Amino acid sequence: MALVGHVARPHGIRGHVIVNLETDFPYDRFRAGEALFTRRGGALEQLTLTAVRFQAGRPIIGWMGPRDVNDVLPYVGAELRVPRAWLSALPEDVFYRHDLVGCRVELVDGQPVGIVRDVQGPLAGSCLVVASAHGEVLVPLAAEICTRIDVVGRTIVIDPPAGLLDLNAPSAGRPTRP
């Protein structure tokens, strides 16, 4: 399942919620009649959208079932997902975030850096969270730094600016915090 949004908070008294987006295709994903999925108590729950409108770039949605604000309070913070098979095909050199997680990261000379554990930040200005030998390293997901991304080969080649990879490296002269 691919993440498309998070329930931010209730909106009004009629059982609607505001969604923080995690998709570049909000008008395709959030339409009346469409289905989204979430986990509640370990079980997968389908939410069939009955009302959708956009305000300040975010969808306000309602789905079958909730009638008032109290019915949607347990959903605050919930992830909204769709099956990966429902995702749109992307143009060349455009990737879904979940396709990057698990990729090996290496320098242009082939030296290994680590493995992508997550992609953080807003859709514009994202960073790869790379688990390296020296801890987590944040690598901006920018064409100038990520010079080659091969999701089929599960490899990302980077050419980072000087010092980027050393930000989390331990230093003998730096005191450690208790």
Structure, described:
This protein has 178 residues and is mainly β. The protein has 2 domains: 2-86, Beta Barrel (Elongation Factor Tu (Ef-tu), domain 3), CATH 2.40.30; 97-166, PRC-barrel domain (SH3 type barrels, Roll). It is built from 3 helices and 12 strands. The radius of gyration is 20 Å and the shape is elongated. The chain starts with a strand and ends in a 20-residue tail after the last strand.
CATH topology of the largest domain: Elongation Factor Tu (Ef-tu), domain 3
- Please indicate the percent range of residues in DSSP E strands (runs of 2 or more): 35-45%
The H-and-E topology, N to C, reads as EEHEEEHEHEEEEEE
In the sheet with the most strands, the strands line up as 3-4-5-2-1-6
**Structure summary, number of beta strands:** 12
Whole-number average pLDDT? 88
| CATH C-level of the largest domain | Mainly Beta
Q: What CATH architecture of the largest domain would you give? A: Beta Barrel
Catalogue the unreliable spans.
Answer: 172-178
Domain count: 2
Major sheet summary line: 6 strands, antiparallel
Shape: elongated
Q: What is the number of helical segments per DSSP (H or I, 4+ residues)? A: 3
How is this structure best summarized?
With 178 residues, the protein is mainly beta. The chain has three helices and twelve strands. It has two domains: 2-86, Elongation Factor Tu (Ef-tu), domain 3, CATH 2.40.30; 97-166, PRC-barrel domain (SH3 type barrels, Roll).
